[in-house]
Amino acid sequence: MSRLRAIILAGGRAERMGRDKALIAWDGETAIARIARLADAAGAGDVIVAGGDYGLPFVMDAVAYGGPVGGVLAAAAAPTQAERFLILAVDAPTITLADLGPLLAAPSPGAVYAGFPLPMVIDRRAVPVAMEVNDRLLRLIEAAGLGTLEPPLDVIPRLRGANTPEDLAVLQQADPPARSP
Q1: Are 88 and 37 a contacting pair, CB within 8 Å?
Q2: 176 burial class (0-12, 13-18, 19+ CB within 10 angstroms)?
Q3: The pTM is what?
């Protein structure tokens, strides 16, 4: 069984949200803590945050606010024994272990859900390290040759995450209290 590293992308400006999305409370814990707990439940042997220090191992993006590809590349380059990466967005803390199951089970080189570049599972050797840090996730997905899975309809709202206060209200209303990953 391959070793899994979780990469939590948390390096954005959060301009549309108006506050740090990693620190938003979800049923008594921060979004970053909730995502880290999910990563642990998914079997990640180590967790690294790309973009900021939230009390977990972290790497800074090569270019501050350069975009998620920069975060992926920085975290993928950090020392690890992992053969696969589970890449999660801090602004989608209602994702469940069941939602991740099909991605984690996807064959090499990994997969994403159609229409949603995150979450993503990608083999370490498939990470296109020569990409520009400000490139788009869709280009990374294409360059890595990731498979695309159709998301179940009930998963789609959780995949969208919360980028604005309005998104946050919708997601918090739909997320039952004390739900485990």
Answers
A1: no
A2: exposed
A3: 0.89
Which residues, 6+ apart, have CB-to-CB distance to 88 below 8 Å?
6, 7, 8, 9, 35, 38, 39, 95, 118, 119
* Contact between residue 63 and residue 132 where contact means Cβ atoms under 8 Å apart: no
**Token reading at 127:** 């990470």
Mean pLDDT, the chain cut into blocks of 10 residues (181 residues total) = 85 63 82 94 94 92 80 94 96 92 98 97 96 91 98 90 72 58 53
Determine how many CB atoms are found less than 10 A away from the CB of residue 169.
11
- Residues 86 and 75: beta-carbon distance below 8 Å: no
Tokens linked to 150: 């159709």
Between the CA of residue 169 and those of 33, 36, 90, 100, 152, what are the distances in Å?
19, 22, 16, 23, 22
For 40-88, the pLDDT digits (tens) are 999 998 999 998 899 999 998 877 777 899 999 999 999 999 999 999 9
With residue 24 as reference, give the H or E element that holds it. Answer: none
